Amino acid sequence: MDPRGVGLLRPKLSVKGHDYADPLAGVEENLAYNAFLVGKSLLGMRVTDVRATVRKLAARTKRSRVVLCGRRDAALVACLTAAIEPGVTHLAVEQMPLTYRWFFDPVGRPINAASVLPSLLRDHGDIDQVLAAIAPRRMLSAAGLGTTSQRVPTLQRAEGLFTENPVLLTDWLK
Q: What's the average model confidence in pLDDT over 24-30?
């Protein structure tokens, strides 16, 4: 599955001296800001792409369990997709911010423009409200960034990375 701007759909653009996914000066940031200029959200478009793929695969394979996994910026895409797609039965995210407040700490952390969903905080609340919308489905947050302000009963937290230690993911799926 290649949501907009990823994999085969990744534009063949470059910013001299910068990585494609550099959140402050890369092509990824450029795509996100161009989307904002036309009233769209790159994050929202990617969620739409993943949701369409999940629905097609679920209809074609007739599976009763659909596990959606994502890490870093893709974790937020997976999380928001699970919030609006009831066909996703399990969500596993790695290194996803568990609150947008994390970005406003005095330390000051950059955020990839492709991970911004305009008006999310104002209209829907923080990420813990998104996680609450996914409940009672099972969720795993591996090496989550920050903490939720409310307890989400079906959210299991793990300190390690499931991309480095797959047993974290496979044990959780049992």
A: 63
Rounded-to-integer distance, Cα 35 and Cα 29, Å: 10
**Residue 15: predicted pLDDT:** 59
Q: In the predicted model, is pLDDT for residue 24 greater than 70?
A: no
**Reported pTM:** 0.80
Fold designation for 46-173 = Rossmann fold (3.40.50)
- For the stretch 13-45, what's the b/e string if a residue is b when 16 or more beta carbons lie within 10 angstroms of its beta carbon? eeeeeeebbbbeebbbbbbbeebeeeeebbbeb
Residue with tokens 């307890």: 151
What DSSP line would sit under 13-49, residue for residue?
A: ---TTS-TT-TTTSHHHHHHHHHHHTT--HHHHHHHH
